[in-house]
Amino acid sequence: MKQQEQHPHSAVYPGSFDPLTNGHLDIARRGANLFETLIIAVYAFPAKNLLFSADERVALWQEVIEHEKLQNVRIVKFTGLAVEYVRSIGAVALIKGLRSSNDFEAEFQQGLMNHRLAPEIETVCLFSNPDHLCISSSLIKEVAKLGGDVHTMLPASVEHALREKFAGERKERNQEESPNVLQ
C-alpha cells in the first residue's frame, strides 16, 4: 500500500459519539488548538447499541462545530481501523480523551496496538476537564431515556435531538402498549 505524504499538522479524533457530549466537544476544541487540522471521524459501525445513525451523528457534529466556529475542524464518517483511516489521509496523530483509569487502560492497549500497526502515527491523549469526568454517552442515554435532565452535559442541539429521539420511542411504546379497542 502506497503511503500518502504526511501532513504533520493534522490529527484525527475518532469515536462513535452516540451522542456527542460536552466532554467530546472539549477534547475536540483542545485538539483543534493543537493541530492545524482536526478531523472528527465518526465510526459508522461500532460494536455498540446505537441510538443515532452514523449520518445523524455526523450531522450533529457538523451543527455543533459550526455553532462553535471551529474553522479548522472537519467531520467525516469512517469504517475499519482508525489507524488505517489516519494513514489513508496522511494525518500523523490520533486524539483520544481520558476520563478515568479505565479509559487509560483501554486507550493504552489500543495505542500500543496502533503503534504496532502504524508506528508513524502518534496517539495523543488529552485528560478530560474535571467538569466532564462523569459524562459518558451510554450513561447520558440511560438518564435521558428515564426522563432525567442532561442539558448541562450536552451541546444544546444534541440535547434537543436526544429528547426528540426518546419522545419518538416513548410514543411508539405507548402505541404498542395501548390496545386498539375498536369493535
Question: What attributes characterize this protein structure?
Answer:
Rossmann fold; 6 helices; single chain; 46% helix; 183 residues; alpha/beta; five-stranded parallel beta sheet
Task: Write a structural description.
The protein has 183 residues and is an alpha/beta fold. The chain has a domain at 10-133: HUPs (Rossmann fold). The chain has six helices and five strands.
Unreliably modeled segments: none
Report the sheet with the most strands, covering strand number, pairing sense and barrel closure.
5 strands, parallel
Number of beta-strand segments: 5
Percent range of helical residues: 40-55%
How many angstroms separate the termini?
68 Å
Helix/strand/pairing class, anyone?
alpha/beta
- The Cα radius of gyration reads 18 Å
Query: What fraction strand?
Result: 15-25%
Please state the second-level CATH architecture of the domain at 10-133.
3-Layer(aba) Sandwich
Q: Largest sheet, order of strands side by side?
A: 3-2-1-4-5
Order of helices and strands: EHEHEHEHEHH
What is the CATH C level class of the domain at 10-133, in words? Alpha Beta
Number of helices: 6
In CATH, the topology of the domain at 10-133 is named Rossmann fold
Mean pLDDT: 89
Task: Specify the CATH homologous superfamily of the domain at 10-133.
Answer: HUPs
Give the overall silhouette. globular
